[in-house]
Amino acid sequence: MRQAGAITIADSEIEISAIRAQGPGGQNVNKVSTAIHLRFDIAASSLPDTYKERLLQLHDQRITKEGVIVIKAQQGRSQEKNREEALRRLQELIASVAISPKKRTPTKPTRNSQLKRLDSKTTRGQVKAMRGKIDG
Q: Radius of gyration over alpha carbons of the chain, in Å?
C-alpha cells in the first residue's frame, strides 16, 4: 500500500519492472538492471473518479494516450533507490491533482477604473489626431 496524499494505492495496481539503465557507469551499467520502469493504469486503479479525470486531463508526457502513467527512474546506482524515486514521483503526480483548483469569481471593474480607461483613450485619440497635416 502506498500513500498519495489522503489516497492509498494498492501495490497490485503498480507494475514495476527492472531494466538496464542508460548513460555512463562502466561495467555496472552494462551488467546490472538498476533502472526502474513503473507503470500505473489510471482507468483500472482504485482512485476516485475526480482524480482519474484530472490525471487524464493533464498534458503530461508521462501519461500515454491509453491513460497509463509511465515513470522511468535511473538516477540512483541501486535498484531500491530508483524504486523509491519512481514511487515518489507517482505520489507527487497524484498529489498534484488532489488539490482542486479554486473557482474563479468574475469581478466587475470599478466605476473609477472605467472612467480612467475612457479618459486615457480620448487623450490618446487627441494625440493621434494632432499628428495630421496642418492646413495653412
A: 28
Q: How far apart are alpha carbons 17 and 35 in whole angstroms?
A: 8
Check if the beta carbon of residue 72 is closer than 8 Å to that of residue 93. Answer: no
**Taking the model in full, what pTM does it have?**
0.67
CB 27 within 8 A of CB 114: no
Q: What is the pLDDT of residues 60-85, one digit of tens each?
A: 898 889 989 999 998 888 889 999 99
Distance between CA atoms of residues 117 and 20, nearest Å: 63
- Give yes or no for a contact between 91 and 4, defined as CB atoms under 8 angstroms apart: yes
The answer regarding whether domain 2-98 maps to CATH 3.30.160.20 reads yes
Question: What are the extents of the domains in the chain?
Answer: 2-98
